[in-house]
From TrEMBL:
GO terms for cellular component: membrane. PANTHER family: SULFATE TRANSPORTER (PTHR11814). The chain crosses the membrane at residues 85-103, 140-159, 171-191, 197-216, 282-305, 341-359, 408-430, 436-454, 466-484, 490-506. It comes from Zalerion maritima. Gene3D superfamilies: STAS domain. Residues 573-709 form the STAS domain. InterPro entries: S04_transporter_CS, SLC26A/SulP_dom, SLC26A/SulP_fam, STAS_dom, STAS_dom_sf. This is STAS domain-containing protein.
Amino acid sequence: MQNATRRAGHGLAKALGVKLQEKEPVRDELSRGESIFSIQTTDTFVEQQPRSIDWVVDQFPSRKDTTSYLWSLFPFLTWISKYNWSWLAGDAVAGITIGAVVVPQGMAYAGLAELDVQFGLYSSFMGVLVYWFFATSKDITIGPVAVMSLLVGNVVTEVRKTHPEFAKEAIASCLSVLAGAVILGLGLVRIGWIVDLIPLTSLSAFMTGSAINIAVGQIPPLLGIQTVETRGAAYRVFINTLKHLGDTKLDAAMGLSALTMLYALRHGSTALAHRFPKKQKAFFFGSTLRTVFVILLYTLISFLVNMKHADDPSFQILMTVPRGFQNAGVPTVNTTLVKLIAPYLPATIIVLLIEHIAISKSFGRVNNYTINPSQEMVGIGVANMMGPFMGGYPVTGSFTRTAIASKAGVRTPLAGLITAMVVLLAIYALPPMFYYIPKSVLAAVIIHAVIDLITTPNTVYQFWRVSPLEVFVFFVGVFIAVFVTIEDGIYATVGLSAAILIFRILKARGRFLGKVKVHSVLGDHVIGDDHRDVLGEYGTFSPPVAQPARNVFLPIGHPDGSNPEVEVDNPYPGIFIYRFSEGFNYPNASHTLEHLTSYVFANTRRTNKNHFAKRGDRPWNDPGPSRLLKRKNRSRYNNGSSEGEDGFPTLKAVILDFSSVNNVDITSVQQLIDVRNQLDRYTSPDFVDWHIACINNRWTKRALVSAGFGYPAERADGLQHRWRSIFSVAEIGGEDSPAELQEVKSNAAILSRTTSMHVGATLDIESGLAADSSEAPTPANGKASAAGEGEEAGATISGIPCTESRGVKAVDMALKRKQNAVKGRPVAVHGLNRPLFHVDLTSALQSAIANVEARMEVATSESEGAVTGR
């Protein structure tokens, strides 16, 4: 069947004019050439190319993969059966604490979303109620957040400018359903990695710009100023606030004093916790509940001030808050509303994702667990799709509440269910108390919460130390968020970061490497492969044979910051080592290879000295080196003797370091072929050897082999059959490994001592019998007895069959067999059919030099034979 399929495939290829892969010239010639080791003493290893059908089959999920996927959609199933009272205690404390915090925050953030306060409570309830079923993070709490609320408020305002017939809550609910559906889809197809495309600088700029916008927008309600539009750019809001300071009312006294008290409670609790470490937990909860305390205190003050004239309060209060879920129902999602909201979806999705995933990853690292970003998307998506049925608007993870939950000792995601109970209690039992909450105090709560989101100067300085260019991106994002809109700030930072990344990839330039011998020094001693293997005193490394050394390859010119006093030069005249820096794909292939060829041309000469018979035959773009450069290169490459008129060596080999290359594509491989052909013309009538080291991917090997790399190129003079195959061999593992041999030796020594003791005891007994009795056992009887005992007590110790009767001789024979088996089993690391693929640069350089010198020996012998023939 397989042969029939092969014949059919070859027939179809012939009909279509497809040239199938030619037979590799080295595959059937593994025993030819001057190998560094004998094929007969080494296991032959021939690399097989990966097949496309295997890749296709691997992409289809198996039954086990499908079951695992379905199980992963509900992570709570892995731990709910192990739930215990200890976990419940931690979750109860954390859940009640978060509930006490999220109620006032949700009410405050609803104002940012241009909604009534009850919608913040609805969103708080549905977020924590639904999320815990799908959560992979125990710490994060999902609900209304300041930044998302501000963005929802902007969407509501913009849509109602042209379509005032849509209610505010309808717009917010539709936005939540659409964003949740998109995020749920992304999570179900498991592409949570998409969040990694947004860098930390973009997130920091977005959070900082948003915090500034929110804080500035809350200054007018904090001061009781009602004549300033708070939905404009932050700088306009600030300027207009200054213009209307005369309109400040009694609200300012309530708001400013509440804000001052919030900071005083926080800093006071922190100071007391440091002063009294034993009561640190109590002070933590005191600090955590400061928002609740301030709201309760000022609600009481407001009640005392306004209870006799509640319809005409002395400062702005919330007034009536509906009890229960008054807006529960199917959310409005129609074509008109979807078209109006669609332009704002990208920004909404980005905000929902980056804040939640960044927070969950951060707390996962702190508390030593790993989250699944794709599954977190499922949780966010479901929460935002279900929330609008109870009147909620878009929700995501909250940094402040997550930090509180973590410090409060949350044990599992089930704490969200307890938080939902607290919020439900507030929705049904506390609305009458909400009537007297001052709006200026809610503004103070918002300002107090968002100020912590502003990136600190110390963090910006650390950014500068790592990457000054990204600090520029950070400030651009903050500037646009403050002076234009938050959405434009998001797009600007993400776009700039992507542009910088693409530019780095496009303009990537590899490094040419030189060889340096280094020694490992521990204290005042030179050490070997093991740091405990002290080999000598650290001095001037003389005599060199007494000091171990290894080869390392450093960039020529020391662009890596290595010591400039260390001399780094080309490892061999005409051989160049090139390391890719940003991979090797179609975006950077052209620029990278242009850098490679320009350097090679600048440091070599043509192999054919008569290529340009006269100076005037040189093309205008290749005038040749100056006289000063000629003299310099004669000294550099030839110790003062000229190899040619230019003083340069000829190009002999190129070694590519693929340690930073994971995949290649058609464009990059084709350009590599073009460069190979270009350099072959440059070195004509000779050829350039291409050695490639540190290949990380089988598909990359397949692509390179299909392009003719990995084995010697066909030559008209047949010299490709004289290649010297320097392979890297390694110790095999398992029973035939040297480690196993060492264990055999240890066991053999124990067995030898045991057998000797037993034989000695037997001789003493026999001696006693000979003295006490006139009849001693015959040798025949003794031999039979020993044989029988050996059959009953025969054993195998680490592969050494032995009996007591065989003694030391049997052990020695088995040990020798084991040693011979180990000594005869080295294996090649890479396939013998890929002699120009190498495990490291040292092997590649050794192979390149060996082949270059072999060709030189052949050329010398042929020239001497020609002279002798004459």
